[in-house]
Design brief:
The chain is α+β, with helices and mostly antiparallel strands. It has one domain: 2-Layer Sandwich (60s Ribosomal Protein L30, Chain: A). It contains 3 helices and 10 strands; from the N terminus they run βββββααβαββββ. The strands form 2 sheets. Strands 1-3-8-9-10 form a 5-stranded mixed beta sheet, with no helix packed on it. A 5-stranded mixed beta sheet has the order 2-5-4-6-7. The chain is globular and about 45 Å long.
Length: 162
């Protein structure tokens, strides 16, 4: 199956069951995978920062840069391909601390990304089915196989399924 790379501050959606959406180097950033098993529509977001209030012009130019604008854009793009909110399976990875375990994480971007995501999903009645978030793992690779909705996570040499 062909890999479709999702860059930082980007999102991709597809209804092609042969596609595999992949994003790399999730550290403080968040990877959000959504999948509709009936419509066989999937999407993957790699958001870098929590709130678009930081720079409204950048958010308008690239909603995927921010969690609060990227997640709604991801959902809308999947709806446009036939996905239904009631069937969507949501899986999340990333949101790590930027500092070493014994050092202060001054800006707490990873933590703030997670809080923004959780608030946004909660307000919209959407639950996360699986996650691998937080901690100090600064390099997660997340992949969504659109044919069956499987989300895999690679950290170092270890590959697991969410």
């Amino acid at each position: 199956m062909p890999d479709v790379t999702v860059a930082m501050a980007a999102l991709q959606v597809t209804a092609d069951p042969a596609d595999r959406l992949v994003t790399y180097a999730l550290g403080i950033c968040l990877g959000v995978a959504i999948y509709d098993p009936v419509a066989r529509v999937g999407g993957l977001l790699h958001a870098m920062l929590p709130l678009s209030t930081l720079d409204a012009a950048k958010a308008r130019a690239n909603p995927a840069l921010f969690v609060d604008t990227g997640v709604p854009a991801l959902f809308r793009a999947c709806y446009a391909l036939g996905a239904s909110k009631s069937r969507l399976v949501v899986k999340v990875a990333g949101g790590a601390a930027a500092a070493a375990p014994d050092a202060p994480d001054q800006f707490q971007i990873g933590r703030r990304n997670l809080l923004t995501l959780r608030q946004l999903l909660w307000k919209n009645g959407v639950l996360v089915q699986a996650q691998d978030v937080g901690g100090h793992q600064l390099s997660r690779t997340m992949a969504l196989d659109v044919g069956d909705g499987t989300v895999s996570l690679k950290m170092g040499a270890t590959i697991s399924t969410l």
